[in-house]
Specification:
Number of helices: 12
Order of helices and strands: EHHHEEEEEEHEHEEHHEHHHEEEHEHE
CATH class of the largest domain: Alpha Beta
Oligomer: single chain
Number of domains: 2
Low-confidence stretches: none
CATH superfamily of the largest domain: Gcn5-related N-acetyltransferase (GNAT)
Distance between the termini: 29 Å
Largest sheet: 6 strands, mixed
Helix content: 25-40%
Radius of gyration: 22 Å
Strand order of the largest sheet: 2-5-6-8-16-9
Mean pLDDT: 96
CATH topology of the largest domain: Aminopeptidase
């Protein structure tokens, strides 16, 4: 394999098409590995989660017989333990799933030869690979563990967070029948109450000219929650706006609002990607708490999904109770660390 390190934006931009083609063939299909998503993340370093002055792009690519067969979307920085390391672009807080991008049959060879490639470069960051938010179903996990044993690297793995999901059938009543009886009753009751007691409707933002205005409306509603208000720094708002623009341009943004009496009451920022709705963030107005607008809008979204070819709702990281009340089953995201064993280790 022929390896290359991409460490500037211009080089990265030049491989946009090849990146997209390889991602389509990779065993992992998540929106957070899309070229445009990661590029938007890098522009603000995840809403200033990382200091731009202390990071360096370090994307590793491998070609075989002229064909791109693997991408390690990495950057160099000090990790959370203040040690020089290679880290996934997108880490840690705002990208739910991260991984390597590779032809499935080439993944073991790609990662194995990549470790050898890194060993031959005298750089402290190359001796520690610190990877967050790998899905627990990723083939990379077992491959990395096996390689560590064979190539003299210490291997560490920990479970970070649950990431519930629910497979959805084609029919609403079938979906409800799979829920707990009490929850099934609650969803029906909340829907009926809103429809009978208010003038309400919901919509998905489809007009590209309104994406900036509607994204700001969404963030302003998020900020009604004191915890989310603290999270929404100016840089984080810029990151979310960039993300929504890119998702809209690529036709996988699903930003929806529920209005009650002509006022926005709840909203969901999702990605419609690979026959799945990825629930990225939510917001609701406490003024309408009596109508449970977040629950109602989620019910509408799931019904819409059934009518539009969606097969799964991924609630992503976090163990919020509503995810399980709507049928969520846990998967997990993992953190993996590889550290080269040396005489000083």
């Amino acid at each position: 394999m022929k390896f290359q390190i991409i460490n500037n934006i211009e080089q990265w931009d030049s491989m946009r098409t090849q990146w997209a083609q390889l991602l389509q063939k990779s065993s992992i299909h998540v929106p957070f590995l899309e070229f445009d998503y990661l590029k938007a993340w890098w522009l603000t370093h995840g809403g200033s989660e990382w200091d731009p002055q202390k990071t360096q792009l370090n994307i590793i690519t491998a070609k075989q017989d002229g064909q791109l067969i693997g991408i390690a979307p990495l950057f160099k920085s000090k990790n959370r333990e203040e040690k020089p390391a290679l880290i996934f672009i997108g880490s840690v807080e705002v990208s739910d799933y991260l991984d390597f991008i590779a032809l499935p049959e080439k993944l073991p060879d790609f990662l194995g030869e990549m470790l050898t490639f890194l060993e031959n470069i005298d750089d402290p960051a190359n001796k520690l690979i610190d990877l967050y938010n790998i899905p627990d179903y990723s083939n990379s996990l077992q491959v990395i563990e096996d390689l560590a044993q064979n190539k003299g690297w210490n291997f560490f793995k920990e479970k970070l967070q649950p990431a519930p999901f629910v497979n959805i059938p084609n029919e609403w009543e079938t979906y409800l029948s799979n829920l707990d009886k009490k929850q099934r009753h609650e969803i029906r009751r909340k829907l009926r109450r809103l429809q009978e007691d208010t003038d309400s409707h919901w919509f998905i933002v489809t007009d590209k000219t309104k994406i900036e205005t509607e994204t700001r409306s969404f963030m302003n509603m998020m900020a009604l929650d004191p915890v989310k208000e603290t999270f929404l720094t100016p840089s984080m708002r810029e990151h979310m706006l960039n993300t929504c623009r890119q998702a809209m341009d690529n036709n996988w943004l699903h930003l929806s609002f529920l209005e009650i009496n002509n006022e926005k009451a709840a909203a969901y920022l999702c990605f419609q990607y690979e026959k799945c709705l990825w629930v990225y963030n939510s917001a609701w107005n406490p003024k309408f708490a009596q109508y449970s607008p977040g629950w109602v809008l989620l019910a509408y979204i799931i019904q819409w999904g059934m009518e539009n070819g969606i097969q799964k709702v991924d609630f992503m990281r976090g163990n919020e109770s509503y995810k399980y009340k709507f049928g969520g089953t846990d998967r997990y995201v993992m953190r993996v660390k590889l550290q080269k064993i040396t005489s000083l280790s």
